[in-house]
């Protein structure tokens, strides 16, 4: 399922786009936000089938080599360990995966050059070479190789460019989706005929979390900014970047609107997000301001937490 951190990132991006564009239709922006969440789930399937496409390309290379006028011994007796990988076969034969790919019109048919590039890059990795050199064949070895393949995608500029071309809504999603896939693979066993596909959300609370956080942060944006000014009076206003204020305001919305989310979780999440979506010094600044805001909101009785582990 999509992580809460990714959902928070989707919310902050939607808020940024809404406010910077001067949009005045909150429902339209919320609809776009939920569409970006749907697309993140699509990306899970789009990335999951990549090793299937790469293995098919490897099989095509083997077939072409056998048809040479003067094939070598290696051409006629190829190493098929990769193309016969049991984990890749499970993914390729998964009804759940294929149904989603067909229903959402996903796939890589328009990007043959990307598939060739990914194969060429992965074939040069130590993990692939070691795997192909061993005569042994085990399900665990097959799974480990596929895991290495997905990890290697983080370093692929070609894949990043393709994803940006297919959907702008996939920007920055790949690391989170890769973790989802690796979790799915971790529970896969040789006795399984299907890979376990996680639901989009952990529970029905997650889509409500996304919508409520967006709405509360947007509706109360001006009042939150006024509140923030009380704790940044000694700072040069021109030095406080827009994203810092937006993150702090959204954190306030979360602190005051979700009784079941511990204060520490909210603070840790938004401070971590600020490291990637604001300036290098933002996390320290946001941490200091939020500490003061939490103390003040608690004293005012505006932060009320309840639930298991909170009392």
In short:
The chain contains 16 helices and no strands. It has 311 residues and is mostly helical.
Structure description:
The protein is mostly helical. The chain has 2 domains: 4-186, no CATH class; 220-300, N-utilizing Substance Protein B Homolog, Chain A, CATH 1.10.940. It contains 16 helices and no strands. The protein has helices at 4-21, 26-48, 50-66, 73-76, 86-92, 95-103, 112-123, 126-133, 139-152, 157-166, 174-186, 205-219, 221-229, 242-257, 263-277, 282-300. Helix 9 packs antiparallel against helix 11 (174-186).
Low-pLDDT runs of 5+ residues are none
The secondary-structure element order is HHHHHHHHHHHHHHHH
Enumerate how many helices there are, as a single number: 16
In whole angstroms, how far apart are the ends? 28 Å
Helical content stands at 55-70%
Any idea what the radius of gyration is? 24 Å
Integer tally of domains? 2
Largest sheet: none
Strand content: under 5%
Number of strands: 0
- The overall pLDDT average reads 93
Structural class of the secondary elements? mainly alpha
Any idea what the shape is? elongated
List descriptors.
N-utilizing Substance Protein B Homolog, Chain A, mainly alpha, 16 helices, elongated, 311 residues, 2 domains, 0% strand, 67% helix
SSE map:
Elements: H1 4-21, H2 26-48, H3 50-66, H4 73-76, H5 86-92, H6 95-103, H7 112-123, H8 126-133, H9 139-152, H10 157-166, H11 174-186, H12 205-219, H13 221-229, H14 242-257, H15 263-277, H16 282-300
Helix pairs in contact: 1-2, 1-12, 2-11, 2-12, 3-7, 9-11, 12-14, 13-14, 14-15, 14-16, 15-16
């Amino acid at each position: 399922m999509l992580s809460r951190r990714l959902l928070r990132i989707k919310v902050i991006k939607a808020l940024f786009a809404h406010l910077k564009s001067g949009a005045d239709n909150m429902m339209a922006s919320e609809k776009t936000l939920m569409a970006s969440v749907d697309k993140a789930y699509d990306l899970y399937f789009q990335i999951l089938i990549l090793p299937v496409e790469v293995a098919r390309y490897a099989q095509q290379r083997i077939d072409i080599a056998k048809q040479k006028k003067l094939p070598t011994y290696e051409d006629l007796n190829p190493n098929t360990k990769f193309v016969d990988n049991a984990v890749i076969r499970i993914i390729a034969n998964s009804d759940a995966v294929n149904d989603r790919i067909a229903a959402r019109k996903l796939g890589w048919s328009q990007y043959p050059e990307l598939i060739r590039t990914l194969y060429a890059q992965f074939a040069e990795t130590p993990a692939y070479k070691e795997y192909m050199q061993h005569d042994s064949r085990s399900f665990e070895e097959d799974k480990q190789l596929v895991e290495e393949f997905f990890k290697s995608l983080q370093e692929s500029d070609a894949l990043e460019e393709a994803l940006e071309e297919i959907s702008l809504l996939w920007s920055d999603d790949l690391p989170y989706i890769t973790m989802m896939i690796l979790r799915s693979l971790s529970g896969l066993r040789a006795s399984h005929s299907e890979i376990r596909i996680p639901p989009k959300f952990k529970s029905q609370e997650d889509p409500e979390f996304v919508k409520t956080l967006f709405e509360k942060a947007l509706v109360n944006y001006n009042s939150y900014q006024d509140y923030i000014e009380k704790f940044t009076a000694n700072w040069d206003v021109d030095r406080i970047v827009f994203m810092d204020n937006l993150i702090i305001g959204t954190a306030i919305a979360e602190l005051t609107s979700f009784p079941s989310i511990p204060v520490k979780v909210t603070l840790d999440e938004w401070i971590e997000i600020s490291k990637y979506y604001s300036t290098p010094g933002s996390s320290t600044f946001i941490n200091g301001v939020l500490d003061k805001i939490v103390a003040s909101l608690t004293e005012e009785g505006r932060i009320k937490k309840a639930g298991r582990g909170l009392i």
